[in-house]
Amino acid sequence: MKKRLLILLTILLIITSAAGCGEKTVTPSGNFFAQIAADPGKYNGKTVTFDGYYFAGFEIEVVCENLVPQEGWEGNYVPAGIKIWAEGYMPKAVYSNLYTQEKNPTGYPAEYGKIEVTGVFTYGAKYGHMDAYNYHLTMTDAKLLDWKP
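Predicted structure:
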């Protein structure tokens, strides 16, 4: 009986895995951040490609809707709007060409820039440092976009 159950579970796993193999990357038209604010479930578990601002520093790594000047820290920027906790693959050529913000309230540098990012979007739990984020992205690729602060 255990052997049959194991075989059935294995077959079910194979069928379930194969069902997702044909799914392609979704490239939402328009503002992806506005779309996930309206209906995040539409993209849950899907690979998406969209433009956003990457910001990585002490206890933060996000792709966000915008970067805005940091109050009281001339020349610094902070993430604004919808923020998606991000982790995974960031090409070295992209990461090494981000802007570096040396002086921050945390005492640690931060990297930031505008990117086109591809990854698996997840919604439905709390993510990131202290579970502060409603959205998650497992990055699989990124391209640096032309942008100056």
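Summary: The first helix runs from residue 2 to 21.
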